Amino acid sequence: MKIKLRTLWRRLIRLGFRLLYNELAWTYDAVSWLVSLGAWRDWQKSALPFIIGDRILEVGHGTGHMLAALESGGRWAVGLDISANMGRMAKGRTSAELVRGRVEEMPFKAATFDAALSTFPTEAIVSPEALAAVNRVLKPGGAFIVVPEGHLTGSSLLHRLIEWLFQITSQQQGSFTMNDPAERPELNPWQIFRLQFEAAGFVVSLKQIPMRRSAVTVLVARKYRQEIEGERENRMSN
Questions:
Q1: Do the Cβ atoms of 129 and 104 come closer than 8 Å?
Q2: 203 - beta bridge partners?
Q3: C-alpha span between 203 and 141 (Å, rounded)
Q4: Which class is 2-237 in CATH?
Q5: How far is CA 97 from the centre of its chain?
Q6: How far is Cα 215 from Cα 43, in angstroms, rounded to an integer?
Q7: Which of 11, 46, 108, 189 has its CA at a distance of 20 to 30 angstroms from the CA of residue 233?
Q8: Could you give phi then psi for residue 125, rounded to 5 degrees?
């Protein structure tokens, strides 16, 4: 009975997030501001210092704030999102090219971008197909920067209430969700994600960034497989 209730709860939470990203996209900025007590934009922008190069792909561009930030920094940016509602929201905020589609099927040529970015994505971003697609469109040595979670560190009643809401909605480890960790007791959640990225051809480092009354995690995944293979080919031909 307990397992059935937990499954039902997860389905309800997924339905809520689906509505938030689609039919209720117009509420997304307000909801994200409320659940972070105004820290959401700072959490997103924590990825900017780790972005390399000038040609950037944002996977899951949402309402377009990060695309606008990239443009204001002089970068050429493209946004990808499966939600038409998010595309309409972003269109009024940025002049970047917006492409609607699934990350696994994105229509870009290989080695197009210096870096890719995704802030607070769903767990779909760590599927083998999605990671392979991102790896393909990155140039050798390119980076995939992901902000998987932010959390409040204050001790007030309001902070504790929001942390509790994160826990019951499976967001304590960020927007990523996973099977019951008890099924993989030898690995913590971040190690599981690290292994998924490494299997797709990335070298991963995790950054924990403290902020005022909050902290955020930034995952930096550098593409390595093409570079290593290229070096091997050069050595063999010399």
A1: yes
A2: 222
A3: 10
A4: alpha beta
A5: 19
A6: 8
A7: 108
A8: -70, -20
